[in-house]
């Protein structure tokens, strides 16, 4: 009877070990899935950030172009004012 009880205890231990292994495997799968989700979220955020930087760069270039146009207009107005003054003297 002692031999049979020892065998059952060993079987129970093996069963508990299998259950433990199974739960560890489940936790690991859960962690990997969660980690994958985090990586996807991070990638989306980085892509959104680079898109924002691209848009900011584009806006800055547009502003520089507009500034050039404004300066050119200002210069033209100054020249026109000088011409107008000369015409008035004549």
From TrEMBL:
The keyword Acetylation does not apply. InterPro entries: BORCS7. It is found in: Lysosome membrane. The keyword Cytoplasm does not apply. It comes from the Eukaryota. One of its GO terms (cellular component) is lysosomal membrane. Keywords: Lysosome, Membrane. Belongs to the BORCS7 family. This is BLOC-1-related complex subunit 7. It comes from Tricholaema leucomelas (pied barbet).
């Amino acid at each position: 009877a002692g031999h049979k009880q020892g065998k059952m205890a060993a079987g129970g231990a093996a069963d508990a070990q299998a259950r433990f292994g199974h739960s560890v495997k489940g936790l690991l799968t859960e962690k990997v899935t969660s980690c994958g989700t985090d990586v996807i979220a991070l990638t989306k955020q980085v892509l959104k950030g680079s898109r924002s930087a691209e848009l900011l760069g584009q806006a800055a270039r547009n502003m520089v172009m507009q500034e050039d146009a404004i300066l050119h207009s200002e210069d033209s107005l100054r020249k026109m004012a000088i011409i107008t003054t000369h015409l008035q003297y004549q």
